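Budget justification aside, the reviewers requested a transparent look at the raw inputs and outputs of the sequence design task funded under Objective 1. We therefore reproduce one unedited record. The lines immediately below are the C-alpha cells for a 385-residue chain.
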C-alpha cells in the first residue's frame, strides 16, 4: 500500500480547514452548543458573540446566535443574526425560514388575541390591549416584513386607538406589498376619518388638507381599478365637501354617464353648478333628481333656492333701471316656482320654521301677500312651541 507523507496530510488538512472556515473546531461554538443543551441561552449568546467577532464569516455561529436570541425572545437580535448567517452562506436557509415563520405566527396570533379582547374591556384596559396588539404586530413585521395581513391588522389596531396617521402609514405599506381595491378603500376611509375628526375640532385647514390627501389616493386607486363606482362616488363627495367644484365637474359627468338613474349624481352636479353660479344650468339636474326620487328634500330645497336666486336677479335688474317705471314683473313667476317647491317641502317637513320663513319670502316676492302672511304665522307658531 502506498503511504501518504506527513507533508501531504498537512496540506490536505489546510485545504479542508480553509474550505470549512474552521467551523467545527471552534471552542466557542462547542461551548455554546453545550450551554444551549442546558437552556442557558444567555451564556450561549456570549460565546457565540466571541466567535462571530473573531470569525464574522462563520455561517453556523451566526445561525446559532439567532437561535440563542430566539429562545430569549430577542427577535430583533434574532433577525440580525439570521441575516448575517444568510449573508455568509445558505447552509441554514431552511431552518431560518421555518424559525422566522414560527415567530411571525406567534406574534401575529398574540396581537390578534389582544385585539379581540378590546371590545369587552374598560376604556383604560382597551388602550393597553391595543398597544399590546400593536407591539406584537410590529414585532411580527420585524420578523416578516413582507406579510400584508400583518400591516392590515396593525392598521386596524391603530384605527381603534385613534392613531390615524399611523394607520395611514401601515395601509400604505400594505398596498406597496399587495395593492387591492379593498385596501385602497380602507386607506381612503382612514384619510376621511382623520379629516372628519379635524373638522369636528374646528381645524378646518387640516381637515381640508386631509380630504385632499384622500382625493390623491382615490386618483391612484382609480388607476388600479378604473371601473370602481365607489372610488368615483367618494371622489365627487370630497370635491363637493372641499369646495373644489370646477375640478369635480368632469367626474360627476362621468358618473352621470355611467348611472343616469342615480339621483345623487344628478343632485350633486346641480350643487356643483350652483357653487359656480350656474343657477339656470343647475335646475334641470335638481329636477332630474326629483323625478327619480319624489319628495327628495335636498333637491326640493335647492330648486326653491335656485328659483329664488333667479327671481331676485331679475327683480334687481328691473328695479335698477327705474323703480317708478317698472311694469314688467316677470320675476314673480320665478318666485312662484320657488314657493311651489318650498310648499312641497313644508308638506314633507311640517315642523321646520325656517322652511316656512323661506316659503313666506317666496310668496311675498311673488306678491301673494295673503299666503305670505299665513306662512309667517305658521313659522312664528312653530317657534313658540
Amino acid at each position: 500500500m502506498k503511504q501518504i507523507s506527513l507533508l501531504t496530510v498537512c496540506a490536505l488538512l489546510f485545504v479542508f480547514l480553509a474550505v470549512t472556515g474552521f467551523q467545527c473546531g471552534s471552542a466557542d461554538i462547542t461551548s455554546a452548543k453545550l450551554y444551549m443543551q442546558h437552556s442557558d441561552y444567555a451564556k450561549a449568546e456570549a460565546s457565540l458573540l466571541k466567535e462571530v467577532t473573531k470569525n464574522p464569516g462563520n455561517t453556523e455561529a451566526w445561525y446559532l446566535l439567532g437561535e440563542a436570541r430566539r429562545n430569549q425572545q430577542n427577535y430583533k437580535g434574532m433577525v440580525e443574526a439570521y441575516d448575517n448567517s444568510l449573508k455568509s452562506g445558505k447552509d441554514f436557509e431552511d431552518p431560518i425560514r421555518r424559525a422566522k415563520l414560527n415567530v411571525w405566527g406567534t406574534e401575529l396570533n398574540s396581537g390578534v388575541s389582544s385585539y379581540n379582547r378590546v371590545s369587552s374591556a374598560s376604556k383604560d384596559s382597551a388602550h393597553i390591549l391595543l398597544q399590546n396588539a400593536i407591539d406584537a404586530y410590529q414585532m411580527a413585521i420585524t420578523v416578516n416584513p413582507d406579510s400584508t395581513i400583518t400591516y392590515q391588522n396593525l392598521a386596524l389596531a391603530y384605527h381603534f386607538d385613534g392613531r390615524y396617521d399611523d394607520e395611514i402609514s401601515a395601509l400604505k405599506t400594505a398596498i406597496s406589498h399587495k395593492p387591492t381595491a379593498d385596501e385602497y378603500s380602507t386607506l381612503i376611509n382612514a384619510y376621511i376619518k382623520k379629516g372628519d375628526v379635524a373638522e369636528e375640532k374646528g381645524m378646518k385647514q387640516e381637515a381640508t388638507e386631509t380630504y385632499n390627501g384622500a382625493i390623491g389616493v382615490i386618483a391612484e386607486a382609480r388607476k388600479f381599478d378604473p371601473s370602481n363606482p365607489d372610488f368615483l362616488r367618494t371622489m365627487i363627495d370630497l370635491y363637493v365637501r372641499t369646495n373644489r367644484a370646477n375640478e369635480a365637474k368632469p367626474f360627476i359627468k362621468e358618473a352621470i354617464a355611467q348611472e343616469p338613474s342615480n339621483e345623487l349624481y344628478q343632485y350633486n352636479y346641480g350643487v356643483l353648478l350652483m357653487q359656480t353660479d350656474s343657477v339656470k344650468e343647475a335646475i334641470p339636474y335638481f329636477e332630474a333628481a326629483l323625478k327619480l326620487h319624489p319628495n327628495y328634500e335636498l333637491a326640493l330645497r335647492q330648486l326653491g333656492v335656485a328659483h329664488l336666486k333667479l327671481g331676485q336677479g331679475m327683480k334687481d335688474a328691473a328695479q335698477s333701471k327705474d323703480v317708478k317705471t317698472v311694469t314688467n314683473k316677470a320675476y314673480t313667476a320665478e318666485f312662484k316656482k320657488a314657493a311651489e317647491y318650498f310648499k312641497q317641502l313644508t308638506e314633507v317637513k311640517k315642523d321646520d320654521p325656517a322652511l316656512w320663513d323661506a316659503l313666506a319670502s317666496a310668496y311675498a316676492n311673488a306678491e301673494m301677500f295673503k299666503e305670505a302672511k299665513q306662512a309667517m304665522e305658521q313659522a312664528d307658531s312653530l317657534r313658540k312651541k
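The longest helix spans residues 297-321. The domain at 13-91 is CATH 1.25.40.10 (Serine Threonine Protein Phosphatase 5, Tetratricopeptide repeat). Computational costs for records of this kind are itemized in the attached budget.
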